[in-house]
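Q: What changes when heme C is included in the input?
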Amino acid sequence: MLAKWFFNVRWSWWRLVFAAIVTVGLYSTYIRFTRGLGASTALRDTFPWGLWIGFDVLCGVALAAGGFTVSATVYVFHLDRFKPVVRPTILTAFLGYLLAILGLAYDLGHPYRIWHALIMWNPRSVMFEVAWCVMLYTTVLALEFSPILFERLRWERATRVAHGLTVPLVMLGVVLSMLHQSSLGSLFLILPSKHHPLWYSPWLPFFFFVSAVGLGCAMTIFESFLSFRVFGKRLEMHLLSDLGKALAVVLGFYLTLKIVDLSNRGALPKAFESSYEGRMFLVEMLLGVVTPLALLLITRVRSDQLGLFVAAGMTVLGTVMNRLNVATTGLESQAGAYFPAWTEVAVTAFIIALGFAGFGLAVRHLPVFPSAELAPSREMPAAHLPFVAAARQPFNLSKALAIGAAVLATLAAGGLAFSGIRTLQNRSDSPPKAKPMAQEMLPLEIRFAPGPKSPGTVAFAHTSHVDLEKPDCAVCHAGEFDLRNRLSQSSSAGARLHDVRLCGSCHDGERSFSVKEDCEICHGVEAPARGPGA
Ligand code: HEC
Ligand code: HEC
Ligand code: HEC
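A: The predicted holo structure follows.
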């Protein structure tokens, strides 16, 4: 049966790639949820956020900015021309949030406790705001998305109700989304001394917000082209050109702000230093801001399919690079180098693949792109990638310009990234000395409540168990010595503490003295005070 089905399915190239990504992704998911974050990521106590936060969550959420920008343009400022753009952007936003939540489920230590933020309020925490924004805005997006679904199902009453709710929902969406885009930036504001000055800025929340708006425009252009290629559905060229113009304005604004901010803080020279961070920063700006801006400023490029596609694609890449730089590169000088584990990469690819699949399904089955444009237009044969199509068309200056600029920028970016990574490798030979932990920060000596048969009170000193140069608290506290279940305070814990999972895990006669022989080292303490904790 199964074999028959297997051979009957038409395995196109992309389906095979998709199947491979899903298989590896599911296996990584299994590792993540059975063996934990330690086994499935390259994260550590000093580097708690990596690819999953930097890419899946930050970029997923940034994707959604198009949703509120465009719906505000249409419903609040009444620029009705842009109405056909609303649906694809809402779809992107909704998918972006769903994927961000999925990414979060991987990254949170205890994802099933995610509802705690609803009940156990901690209004002083940025995380609290983030949690609420995610939940509320996802709900709003689901509601904003619902008319598309109702229309398809022909539920007329529901469609009318949903349409009636549009304007209040859009307003709510704008507020929540603005809050959320910028609060993600705020998360990094607590790291002034750890973050590299090229990215750490008091304006970070604002930068996140502005670049997310740019990404929103770029993503709409980008998706319109992809869905045209695959389904023959897309937006009208004049709308895309207008989006390109808007994108140019946003990018210009962003670039100006960035320069002003860097020079105000005296960090501008750092961008041109031959350091890992300097190089990565240049790559980000070159790919995501400078080249697309230069291209979009040229009218001919802006009104050309391929030109727009290239500029939008580069903006998307650059924004991704920016989020990764903020979340990881910026911290590496203080927290040591981070390179994601293969499982992290596999899960990320899995999530992206799900995103593409979701977008494809929605575009194919729901009225996302305006139906008037269903028929593929003459301008470009649907069956070819824009690049192929471009190559077949007669020579055209704007196309040559777009491709040339893209190739040059990509080569330059590759070269810069390569030289940046070389400087990083040199650096990891002599890693920056992390500040040792101060002895005073360790808890005072802990005395275990002796059981009735105890040969003598046992004192536990953190000072003899923690390497202040490289403190690793998780060896004990991530496992059996869970501080919510204080073994030291229960006299019935008794000889269970000899167990190989507790004190016996190290006091086994090999790594340290043994619980089976050296009784007096632990039990021989009796009354005399030892250390400050007595
Ligand atoms: C070798 C194992 C081990 C390591 C490593 C370790 N601890 Fe502990 N810690 C313990 C034990 C055992 C207790 C007592 C647990 C109990 O009461 O059940 C404890 C208790 C504590 C307490 C409660 C103190 C009190 O006075 O009630 C704190 C706080 C604590 N640890 C912090 C840390 C920090 C911070 C680090 C890393 C710098 C660390 N621990 C590393 C074993 C360890
Ligand atoms: C992560 C490994 C590890 C665990 C778990 C651990 N120890 Fe130790 N402990 C050590 C090492 C290493 C030393 C250093 C002694 C040596 O050089 O052999 C040490 C030393 C000691 C000493 C002698 C130094 C001093 O502070 O007086 C005592 C007592 C002691 N441990 C008690 C305990 C008790 C009680 C527990 C369980 C609550 C425990 N240890 C759990 C690794 C561990
Ligand atoms: C690494 C430190 C360590 C060593 C070594 C060690 N113990 Fe213990 N032992 C403990 C701790 C901690 C407890 C729990 C607190 C208590 O009951 O005093 C305990 C509890 C006990 C108890 C149970 C008390 C009760 O009433 O439940 C007995 C008995 C005991 N130890 C005997 C020994 C003997 C005998 C040795 C040597 C062969 C030994 N221990 C070596 C840490 C140690």
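Observations recorded in class: The pocket of heme C (ligand 1) is lined by residues 443-444, 446, 460, 462, 465-466, 471, 473, 475-477, 481, 483, 486-489 (CB under 6 Å).
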